[in-house]
Amino acid sequence: MYDPKSLKAGDFIDHGEVRDTLEYARANSLNRDLVSAILDKAKDRKGLSHREAMVLLECGLPDKNEEILGMAKGIKMDYYGNRIVMFAPLYLSNHCVNGCLYCPYHATNKRIARKKLTMEEIVREVTALQDMGHKRLALESGEDPVRNPIEYILESIRTIYSIKHRNGAIRRVNVNIAATTVRNYALLRDAGIGTYILFQETYDRGSYLRLHPYGPKHDYDWHTEAMDRAMVGGIDDVGLGVLFGLVDYRYEFAALMMHAEHLEAVHGVGPHTISVPRVRAADDIDPARFGGGITDDTFAKIVACIRIAVPYTGMIVSTRESQACRERVLELGVSQISGGSRTSVGGYFEEETENTRQFDVHDNRSLDEVISWLMELGHIPSFCTACYREGRTGDRFMALCKSGKILNCCHPNALMTLKEYLVDYASPKTLAMGNALIDSEIGVVPNAKVRALVTKHLSMIEQGSRDFRI
User: Fold this and answer.
1) Comparing C-alpha atoms, which of 401, 328, 402, 381 is closest to residue 69?
2) What range defines the domain where residue 275 resides?
């Protein structure tokens, strides 16, 4: 039976409840009164239940669908403003013992080149990322207890934080590694990670077992209950995600919303981020074989409905998506994107000569090109990591975010970190555009004292100082 407060995966992702939710949404897809009532409830910006969110996703009323998209845009601005946080993935190793059918890192793939970065190679990779202007990384690694033990991940994190090149520094490392133990999560917390990210891939148990035929990841319960162990281990910022395109997107959406409800019910803190990757072609992977592909229109509506249902969460879209697709979903709810990404092991320092990519990138622009593009669209590219380093994580971050007060910190911090990027890394075109944007956005800072402080810090950044934060 469905129980969001249970710590058992089969209870908080109850198959019967998911199926009942999908049937309820289908039956009410044209129920104008119900859709209107749900949208009225959503106006308070406090979120929706998984059933209510599913009704919006399934809604077949054109005028109400336009209202859904418009509401998502409004909630995005209320919570996150026009800021877009930047990050880059860093692949440490593609050695893996799992058999995931959608990933070229699966253990039986003999065509892909296997590689694991040494600490010296990590220094080169991170230096290259710093020279782009990145301040926030997402560590990625295949699951291999022998080649990629937790000790290797921890040593890699220490190495990354130690690297200071010119004015560059990685200020926050988020980690996307396989489900592990409470003890190992505590070690990651002590290493100073930001968010622990783990994609469920699919919440449908039968499909999950079929898509993960062997390896540690085959254990559905161990994987699905990982976020609870991470919370027990002291990591209070966790990031959910599914890989859309493997099975019916409706099932994934409903279960994803149920997982968010579970974290709120048990820990009092929902997901810090939700990622919405779609399965992409890779070395021996053809997305068409899974039969769950979704159109860009459906993808955009998924983003909008997540934003309405879980208004406080950060939403992430990577370079898996094209420039056109990313542009569309930015205004509907996305608050974090990657730029200048490489999905291969060692791909930043050297050209990607070896076939070590996890998936094909659809947005191949440089970070500077992405920054310039964002500003042309009216967004503020942000390299801010202040909340992590000021202890505004978990329930403290959520309290600020849900109250709308987080903008008092995030907007000024975005401007100051953008200024650092402009002075240290930007092309002449991006520099001019960015300075003009900062000049126009300074007046948006509501508090006069904060506005004066930010103005002072912007001047000090031009003179060589770095790392100011509110």
Assistant:
1) 328
2) 77-364
- The full length of the chain comes to 470
Whether residue 431 lies inside any domain: the answer is yes
Alpha-carbon distance of 26 to 59, in angstroms, equals 8
Q: What is the mean pLDDT of each run of 10 residues along the chain (470 residues)?
A: 97 98 98 98 96 98 98 94 96 97 93 94 97 97 97 98 95 97 98 97 98 98 98 96 96 98 96 95 84 94 98 94 95 96 90 63 91 98 87 74 74 96 98 98 90 96 95
- The residue from 346, 364, 382 where one domain ends is 364
Final residue before a domain boundary, out of 316, 335, 364: 364
Q: Are residues 252 and 104 in the same domain?
A: yes
- What is the rounded distance in angstroms from the CA atom of residue 281 to the CA atom of residue 138? 21
Q: What is the pTM of this model?
A: 0.95
Q: Where are the beta strands (DSSP E) in 326-404?
A: 336-338, 380-382
Residue 299 to residue 164: CA distance in whole angstroms = 39
